[in-house]
Specification:
Helix content: under 10%
Largest sheet: 7 strands, mixed
Structural class: mainly beta
Number of strands: 11
Shape: globular
Radius of gyration: 13 Å
Number of helices: 0
Distance between the termini: 40 Å
Length: 117
C-alpha cells in the first residue's frame, strides 16, 4: 500500500508562485514514475506533469509547459511541483499520483490552489 499526501496549496494572486509537495509513505515509490494531475472546478481531471523514477525525464502538458517544474527527492519520498506565473485558469485541486502494478493508481486527497486575478 502507498499513501500520498499533498501540501502547499492555498490562495494566491495571478503572477505568484507556489510549490506543492507530495509525501509518500508505506511502500517505496523510488522505482516508480510520479505525476501531478489537477481538477478545475466543474471540469474533468487532467494530467499536467510526470517524472520518471530517477528524475532524468519529465513530461508536461502544454498548458503548464515553461511555467511548472516537477522534481523529486527519493531520499525524502517526496515529489514537488513548482508553479510559477500562476493564472486564474490554474485554479484547481491538485493531486499527485503513482501507478504501481498490480493495483494500479494511488492518489492523494489533493490540495486546493486558488488563483485570483
Amino acid at each position: 500500500q502507498v499513501q500520498l499526501e499533498e501540501s502547499g496549496g492555498g490562495p494566491v494572486q495571478a503572477g505568484d508562485s507556489l510549490r506543492l509537495s507530495c509525501l509518500s509513505t508505506g511502500r517505496s515509490v523510488s522505482t516508480s514514475a510520479l505525476g501531478w494531475f489537477r481538477q478545475p472546478p466543474g471540469k474533468e481531471h487532467e494530467f499536467i506533469t510526470a517524472i520518471n523514477f530517477n528524475g532524468e525525464n519529465t513530461y508536461y502538458a502544454d498548458s503548464v509547459k515553461g511555467r511548472f517544474t516537477i522534481s523529486r527527492d527519493n531520499a525524502k519520498n517526496t515529489v514537488y511541483l513548482q508553479m510559477n506565473s500562476l493564472q486564474p485558469e490554474d485554479t484547481a485541486v491538485y493531486h499527485c499520483n503513482v501507478n504501481i502494478p498490480p493495483r494500479g493508481d494511488y492518489w492523494g486527497q489533493g490540495t486546493q490552489v486558488t488563483v485570483s486575478s
